[in-house]
Structure formats: C-alpha cells, structure tokens
Amino acid sequence: MTEMVAGEALLPARFPRAVLFDLDGTLLDSAPDFVATLNRMRHVRGLPSVPAEVVRPSVSRGSRAMLQAAFPEIDQAEREGWVPEFLSIYQDELGRHSQLFDGVAELLEALEAAGTVWGIVTNKPEYLAQLILPRLGWQGRCAVLLGGDTLPERKPHPMPLRIGCERMGVSVADCVYVGDDERDIIAARQAPMPSIAALWGYRMAEDDPVAWRADRMVEDVHALLTPANWPVAP
After folding, report:
1. Are residues 21 and 44 in the same domain?
2. Are residues 126 and 57 in the same domain?
3. Cα–Cα distances in Å, from 176 out to 20, 91, 134?
4. Whether residue 138 is found in the same domain as residue 202
5. CA 120, CA 104: separation in Å to the nearest integer?
6. What is the rounded CA–CA span in Å between residue 184 and residue 213?
7. Which of 21, 58, 65, 198 could form a disulfide with 180 if both were Cys (CB 3.0 to 4.6 A apart)?
8. Residues 168, 57 share a domain
C-alpha cells in the first residue's frame, strides 16, 4: 500500500528513467548477517547471543549503531575500537544469512524490462558492497555502486546521489531514490530528486517517517511494480 503522497506531483505513465536504491534495509534484508557477526563478537567475550530484534532496527544506522545495540553496557570509546573487528567478521558472514526482501527480484526485472537503469548508493563500505553483487547476480545489472567511503561525502550529503546519476548518464531530475532511513530522504531532497521511503526496511522506535517528507511512503515492495506509485519531479 502507498501512503502519504507529498505535494501534487503528476503520476508517471511509466517507470522512472533511473532509480538509485539504498542497499541494507531497502533491497537486501541483511540483518541476519549482522546478528551473526555481533553474536560471534559476544561469544568471544563470553556473552550470550543477542536477539535479532535488538539489532534489526539499527542496521541502517551502520556498524557503530549496531555495536551500541549489541553492547549497550560498553563505553562508546571502547566500542569504537571494535569497528575493525566488526567489519572483518561481517565480511566472513556477508551473504550467508541475508536475502532479498520479498518483491525486490520482481521489481528489478520490471524496471529493466521497462528500460530503467538502476544502481545502489549505500553508506556501507564500498568493498563490502562490491562483494554482494556477484552473490546476487547483479554485477552485470547494477549500473553504479557507491559506498560510504567511495567519495569525500556520504549520505545524508547529496554528493553520492548526484555522482551516481552522473555515472549512469542521467539527470538528477530523471532519477528516484529509494531508501529506508531519514538520511536517504535528506540526501534525495538536497540532490534534489524525488524520493521513496521504504517502510519495509529498518527503523528505530523513535523514527517518524512522516517527518522525513519523502515524496512517497511505500509499505510493500510490490506496490512499486505499478508505475503510478512512483513519484516524478515537478
């Protein structure tokens, strides 16, 4: 179901010319990989496993937020020193437990059939994001992939979205960004390009997607199989 249409944007007769997606929490349900990573870290320290529901809401916030969720009793400065360990273990767990959100495979096929080019802009380190593509069969399909360390700026700065469009050979106005975190929507608004808040993704309890002011808020990936549910630039 599609909710909260912002503004009076015209409904498109077809899919957008280009789409950029966030990765974790938007295309890929990667939370199980992160839970496995954190529990390996906990077991080494003689601690019991942390439930998935404790970690899942913080996945889109990155490694530091997930470490805070899994080790709330540890001082922030000490946790900061654990980030390299986290990333090393995650690289080993990457792709072992994760899967595409229901409907994503069909959505990408529909976009490609319509001639829409698509890419990924994530805050995940680029080398980790690049490892995912061949495991999903996307290395020949994803037109551009930018990680959080690819450029001098990362989301919510609009630079990655603008560079993503540049590398795909499309204008910012012809592209839509889809993401599950407020930083995604801020980056899109500043680009500026139309945006979709993916409500099927990861959110903290205090998050208020309405306040993000996305052009669309979509609860189910399958809704995006209908071109009329996509926003377009005014």
Report:
1. no
2. no
3. 6, 30, 24
4. yes
5. 13
6. 11
7. 198
8. no
Q: Can you give the CATH number for the domain in which 195 is found? A: 3.40.50.1000
pTM above 0.70, yes or no: yes
pLDDT band at 234 (very low <50, low <70, confident <90, very high): low
What's the total number of domains in the chain?
2
How distant is the alpha carbon of residue 79 from its chain centre? 24
Instruction: Write out pLDDT tens, residues 170-194.
Output: 999 999 999 999 999 999 999 999 9
Angle of helix 126-136 relative to helix 83-93, nearest 10 degrees, comes to 10
Contact 12, 232 (CB under 8 A): yes
Residue-number span of the structural domain to which 124 is assigned: 2-29+98-229
Pair (75, 189) in one structural domain: no
In total, the chain counts a number of residues equal to: 234
Residues 77 and 185 in one domain: no
| Separation CA 129–CA 201 (nearest Å) | 18
Given a cut of 70, is residue 8 above it in pLDDT? Answer: no
Of the residues 22, 24, 33, 215, only one is catalytic, namely 22
Category of 103 on φ-ψ map: left (φ > 0), alpha (ψ -120 to 50) or beta: left
> What residue type is assigned to position 25 of the chain?
G
Q: Are residues 181 and 193 in the same domain?
A: yes
Residue 22 annotated in active site: yes
Q: Are residues 38 and 106 in the same domain?
A: no
Name the nearest CA neighbour of 21 among 50, 60, 57. 60
